[in-house]
């Protein structure tokens, strides 16, 4: 598991430019899949199994994209102004290392502020790529990049960029590789552009037209010094009840908690106040889809140094495999 | 190119003038629909109005066995106002429709209702303004549309109003109230009239863009195209800064050619289409620019997520002072946009989308 996580987080894939992540995932899953498709928006759609009499077509979604930057202007001294792809906290930008998909690298710094107690806003930052003019600048308007940060392996826990949501991708990859028999038709969708309002999952869910939807994504925790939320790292996968964009189908929530109880897998209930996942858009597809979300507790989401607990990840995979292996009763 | 490049001459300018002086605030686009029908009824293979009021025009390909189905979209609506209360004596309170900066409303003349009754958004004269009042913006709730006591009863709650600005051509410049997006509408009318034979054009003249791409979404569902290009107007803020520092947030520049969208608040444009557009422009020496990535949006934001997903991009004609009573655009930018779009359509083949998205 650690190996696939480390592999996936290292690949740059800002929203709208997920091709390299997609290639890597495709390599991992192709031998285990019945079919692999790439749609108009770049979603990777991997199908496994057929729907039997007591089975359902289940859409699983994990997003490939990560928070990134896009160049908006190269000034006359060769500094790169940029805008965000996805919800980027300006406070996390100062002194961050940036790596562009075209190979250029640089460091973020900000305009001089008269009041040193103030934080820079996004438009007061620039990326220094070592250029002296627009002419010798290796970055052009529209070039995209991501924050660069080495993975720190703490043994039980990992710190990395892009765990949101490569951790979900890693779990789905493992599920595809490990699941043998299922009465369900399993459609694993590695989605694009989740961080810019679930734009990939919307058409993907329309195409898949599932009986049941389940997103696998990260969720916030409250176990930091002044945190308030009732989810902690290390206490098991979180089963989403509600977030800023979705009320999970209570029948799906029961299916998830019952399965976890039966298998003795630790779990936590998640009520996330802000933000949402691909589950929202799956739920609202066509005439509506019963949908839930399996969340991996994650600290410091949308920063270049997010943290997860590997036991949570293993338990998430175990729970997911249990959910998918058996006939699903939604009641 | 297979024929003489399309140009902007008197004929195109007078159509733009007609389109721009007509009133079509979001949700009330009938006047624009009428002009489009008059222009295209005889050249379209099919022209119809859908449930939301979009004009959907089909122009079939004449070559190839399985031609690409290409959606072109321009929105008919403009920003404006809606009358919300009759306060007697020809005075009406109003709400804005679409994104309008309320600070620039006082003193602006408007046309109200289907009869285009002239009115004015009045403001307290400076003689009577207290010094401290000048420190804050005049709120919309304190403003009224005044059509004079003679107009009492001529306007009903629910009537629309628009900026009363007559179109003008000033040398190389175009000035009008609704160039966003009548410039796009006029461009697509030209493209239907001079449609390349290799693709089937599915043209939506969309309603309600200014309030969230509502018309384009259902138009895209109807058409179910292979790809889509939204043709719109985008703000140029290419003005010098007060402190003479470099302007790094100009969005796009007037006179620098069609503004191609890479990413905005609604869409990350399809990189395959961006490549085709820029390569085409370079091959024909048509100037172009990238609109600065960031906020804002076009109908592409609604279109690209329809059904199983539609590769989409936007190209805009730059305009200064968007969403005010006067937008200022450049005839050269318009002509370059028209020529670029025409050339791109001619070059479109299924191979453009054969590879995966980046």
3D structure, described in words:
The complex is a heterodimer of chains A (331) and B (358). Chain A has 331 residues and is of the alpha+beta class. Helices cover 24% and strands 27% of the residues of chain A. Chain A has helices at 2-9, 19-29, 163-178, 201-208, 250-263, 278-283, 310-325, and strands at residues 35-38, 44-48, 57-63, 68-74, 80-85, 97-100, 105-110, 125-128, 144-148, 152-153, 157-160, 185-191, 212-219, 238-242, 268-271, 291-297, 306-309. In chain A, strands 1-2-12-3-13-16-14-15 form an eight-stranded mixed β-sheet, with helices on both faces. Chain A has a six-stranded antiparallel β-sheet with strand order 5-4-9-6-7-8, with no helix packed on it. In chain A, strands 10-11-17 form a three-stranded antiparallel β-sheet. In chain A, helix 3 crosses helix 7 (310-325). The mean pLDDT of chain A is 97. Chain B has two domains: 10-78 and 177-353, Aminopeptidase (3-Layer(aba) Sandwich), CATH 3.40.630; 80-163, Elongation Factor Tu (Ef-tu), domain 3. Helices cover 23% and strands 24% of the residues of chain B. Chain B contains seven helices and 17 strands. Chain B has helices at 10-21, 30-40, 179-193, 214-223, 271-283, 300-303, 331-347; strands spanning 46-49, 55-59, 69-75, 80-86, 91-97, 109-112, 117-121, 145-146, 160-163, 168-170, 173-176, 200-206, 227-235, 259-260, 289-290, 312-320, 327-330. The two termini of chain B are 29 Å apart.
